[in-house]
Amino acid sequence: MQFEEFISGSYKQQYEYKSFSPSLVNHEWTWGDPRINTLLEEASLELAKLNTHSLMVPNVDLYIYMHMMKEANSSSRIEGTRTEMDEALRDIAFVDEEKRNDVREVQNYIIAMNSSIKNLKTLPLSNRLLRDAHAMLLAGARGDRKTPGEFRLSQNWIGGSSLADAVFIPPHHEDLPELLSDLEKFWHNEAINVPQLVRIAISHYQFETIHPFLDGNGRIGRLLITLYLLSKGLLDKPCLYLSAFLEKNKGQYYDALTTVRESNDLGHWIRFFLVAVRDTSRKGVDTFQQIMKLRSEVQNRVTAFGARAANGMKLLDRLYMNPVVTVKEAAQALDVAQPTASTLITLFVDQGILVETTGNRRNREFFFRDYYRLFLS
């Protein structure tokens, strides 16, 4: 089917409302828009460059956690949380009471992401995998009463306070088995010739339109993007996360999805998605390059610590994974006494690597600010 001939779906009369049932997607896709060809080439090239950098960076897994944290925080903010990334990095005991639910949601996203990536080694990308991720996403957080880990058995809606004034009403729950089965088959259908980036763009749109959970659909749908790229070998490391781009362009993101449903313009959404992949990949390469530059500068300073240099390098590894640390956490990470960790942290502060952020005399936190700032834009 050509994008230009695509009919997004139809409305079905339910008891007192109409739900939208999207067209099935598991078939060939073609297009006549040359802009998509150009963007697909650009996005594929930049994604390949990012993947290459992820394989060249020494100990790259140390830095992947911060990429995940940025994704988790941005994806959650799209859904309304107001947590800043530095808050999500802190022990929840140090977080203001009114923000703890938001922080828990972000931290749950990290847990769900890590578990899903690990499970991809033994399980194919599947609806089962997404249900498992959903259960972890909502555990102990807002939405934990909305059937975590289960597809919905009732009608949901987007926008408005009820079905009567909803902005969009996804398909009736009785339609979900066919729609979700079709989507899963589309991920693995080797009999059709659809580029992988186009396939995941269509898949994200379809997942968000199906809206199969009572809560958490946006976050799981965005997690699906990274899982898909990993499962298909377009990424060797989980280093591409689009949520920062989507949060920055939130209005355009929602408009592009809505335009497909209302105007059948799938091409508009595909173009938007490919730009997101292209620009985010470029940003990812730049971030890796800046990390390597900072890493070289900081290691030179730590080398001057003499007998404490070895523990200093170990502490650096801990800071690359999480740039917020307390003396107690440093002692645990290095398996040393707290006075030893305190002395080492003082050296880091004196060298300008860490800054103390609380102003307290006790229960102080220290921040690897230069590294953290690489993930802000």
Can you walk through the features of this model?
It is a single chain. The chain is mainly α and about 375 residues long. It is globular, with a radius of gyration of 23 Å.
List the SSEs and their pairings.
Blueprint: E1 9-13, E2 18-22, H1 34-56, H2 61-78, H3 85-89, H4 100-119, H5 127-138, H6 176-188, H7 196-210, H8 217-231, H9 243-248, H10 250-263, H11 266-303, H12 309-321, E3 324-325, H13 327-334, H14 338-350, E4 355-356, E5 366-367, H15 369-372
Antiparallel strand pairs: 1-2, 3-5, 4-5
Helix pairs in contact: 1-11, 2-4, 2-12, 4-5, 4-8, 6-7, 7-8, 7-11, 10-11, 13-14
- Share of helical residues: 55-70%
Which regions are unreliable across 5 or more consecutive residues at pLDDT < 50? none
CATH architecture of the largest domain: Orthogonal Bundle
Radius of gyration: 23 Å
CATH domain topology of the largest domain = Fic-like fold
Strand order of the largest sheet: 3-5-4
For the sheet with most strands, the description reads: 3 strands, antiparallel
What is the chain-wise order of helices and strands? EEHHHHHHHHHHHHEHHEEH
Task: Report the mean per-residue pLDDT as an integer.
Answer: 94
Give the class from helix and strand content and strand pairing: mainly alpha
Number of domains: 2
Separation of termini? Answer: 38 Å
- Beta-strand proportion: under 5%
Task: Provide the CATH top-level class of the largest domain.
Answer: Mainly Alpha
